[in-house]
């Protein structure tokens, strides 16, 4: 019998900040770029549950979050506390949490900094797996003063959906016989791979819910949506044979920043590039990796048109000078007609390294 659990930390970045700064207890918190009194140009990384009550959520423009905060303040509610991310602190806390999880499970797949899958099949029963979930939550609360939500099911898909079912501080167990009914309690967009575009395409075919998907057989779904039909047939019924990948290895190290004003001033853009290159290289030297082989940049213009360029080096390196030189070579064409014939102003710059060893 397969028993898979998924742990998802609750509003992780914001919760760490609240834990470290007791004066923030109970206040709405948004971790992200500086809102600059509504003129900021980044986005919200994480919002705690108090901030979510104002309509603030991750990926929301920071300027919008600031205006929502001001509206709440006018109604006599506390304003949102905006905090710049402290990735070093979040990574350290994540490592301690994953250590706790690994003390209860032999196979753990770290999906991101604040979530992981782990295999509890050896417990032999969902009742015993639930007790382990309770123990993990309790230990995280005691040692790290944070809450987590855990989902337990017969596969990764169901466990992932279950962990989100009773947030925050939830524990949801879905038995094999309950899977199909449980899937009906979720929105169509909860199925991995169904984004806004796919959801719209399905709706045009009269498929707007998971119940609609479950009502169709494999052949009907294949006729309706092509090759994706079998995938949707299985996922709508909570079927998932994906294995756990025991080790999670960062695929890249990256940083990006939105300029305060759209610009094509070379000095400003190159200055930001060097700053971001320094931040990426610092994170690389603090990691367990010793070389990288691919460098890349992201450029976002006014109007939000975004382009990326990468270069794979002939030989893996850890040389900072070479890293900065290669990123500069990738960037310079965007300052002239080679990559920017319409001379559009630049809004955002991003830097990354990949193929880490």
UniProtKB/TrEMBL annotation:
SUPFAM superfamilies recorded: DNA/RNA polymerases, Lesion bypass DNA polymerase (Y-family), little finger domain
Q: Which cofactors are reported in the record for this sequence?
A: Mg(2+)
Name a single GO cellular component: cytoplasm
- Reactions this protein catalyses: DNA(n) + a 2'-deoxyribonucleoside 5'-triphosphate = DNA(n+1) + diphosphate
Per the record, the domain of life is Bacteria
Q: What is its EC number?
A: 2.7.7.7
Write out the catalytic residues in the record: 115
Q: Which Pfam families match?
A: HHH_5, IMS, IMS_C
Site positions (Substrate discrimination): 13
According to the entry, every stretch annotated as the UmuC domain falls at: 4-195
Q: Which InterPro entries does its entry note?
A: DNA/RNA_pol_sf (IPR043502), DNA_pol_Y-fam_lit_finger_sf (IPR036775), DNA_pol_Y-fam_little_finger (IPR017961), DNA_polymerase-Y (IPR050116), DNApol_IV (IPR022880), Rev_trsase/Diguanyl_cyclase (IPR043128), UmuC (IPR001126)
Q: What's one GO MF term for it?
A: damaged DNA binding
Localization recorded for this chain is:
Cytoplasm
Residues that coordinate or bind Mg(2+): 8, 114
The alphabetized UniProt keywords are: Cytoplasm, DNA damage, DNA repair, DNA replication, DNA-binding, DNA-directed DNA polymerase, Magnesium, Metal-binding, Mutator protein, Nucleotidyltransferase, Transferase
Q: Does the keyword DNA repair apply?
A: yes
Query: Could you confirm whether the keyword Nucleotidyltransferase appears in this record?
Result: yes
Q: What biological processes does GO assign it? A: DNA repair; DNA-templated DNA replication; error-prone translesion synthesis
Kindly state what the record says about how the cofactor is bound: Binds 2 magnesium ions per subunit.
Q: How does it assemble?
A: Monomer.
**Free-text function comment from the UniProt entry:** Poorly processive, error-prone DNA polymerase involved in untargeted mutagenesis. Copies undamaged DNA at stalled replication forks, which arise in vivo from mismatched or misaligned primer ends. These misaligned primers can be extended by PolIV. Exhibits no 3'-5' exonuclease (proofreading) activity. May be involved in translesional synthesis, in conjunction with the beta clamp from PolIII.
Q: Which family does it belong to?
A: Belongs to the DNA polymerase type-Y family.
Q: What is this protein called?
A: DNA polymerase IV
Q: Give the gene name.
A: dinB
